[in-house]
Amino acid sequence: MQIQREGMAYKVDHEYDYLFKIVLIGDSGVGKSNILSRFTRNEFCLESKSTIGVEFATRTLQVEGKTVKAQIWDTAGQERYRAITSAYYRGAVGALMVYDITKKQTFENVQRAIPESEAQAMAEKDGLTFLETSALEANNVEKAFQTILLDIYQIVRKKALAAQEAAASVPAKGTTIKPKKEKIEKAQRDGLQVKLDIIAINSPQALIHDCTSSLALAEKTRSGN
């Protein structure tokens, strides 16, 4: 299996078309771990414990006819783990910012406001998508991940097309082949000017970079980290 990194997304042959790394960000106890387990295993744990460091799980699904493998990283919310968890943000192409609607402080820590209407307005202002979810009731969890994966894929596709168009607009470099001297002299005697250019054109390679998408999630039920 061959893996090619294109910017911050990974394009993979054979088993799947793309590998997207997404991180879950938010305070401890807002429900990040249960959101992850609901999406990847369709499970919910009432006695979920706080994550120590980082954990991750994967799930493969179809996005606009492409097979996408989502690699979801669940980061610890406690302050003492911030230095460790922030290192795992590298290479991520998406982020789910999770807060508990019953705890205003968790909103403030991700710089969002607690009422749904205000959170929606803030999300629109910052160019984010806003959803209220419940891992306990399996409400909107699937939609949240489907939304961010679709956003990321569309960004990747748009940048690939833009790169191809840019490459196509650049004059191709090639080799100029001139006719032999006697042919030029004969053409000049006949009153003609001769110049023959043969251009070797290389197929443009699409370059993808700076692919990012963010989604603000309001977790309705406080259900562990």
Automatic annotation (TrEMBL):
Transmembrane segments: none
Species lineage: Eukaryota, Viridiplantae, Streptophyta, Embryophyta, Tracheophyta
Protein name: Uncharacterized protein
A Pfam family assignment: Ras
SMART domains, A to Z: RAB, RAN, RAS, RHO
GO molecular function: GTP binding; GTPase activity
Homology family: Belongs to the small GTPase superfamily. Rab family.
NCBIfam families per UniProt: small_GTP
InterPro entries in the record: P-loop_NTPase, Rab_GTPases_membrane_traffic, Small_GTP-bd, Small_GTPase
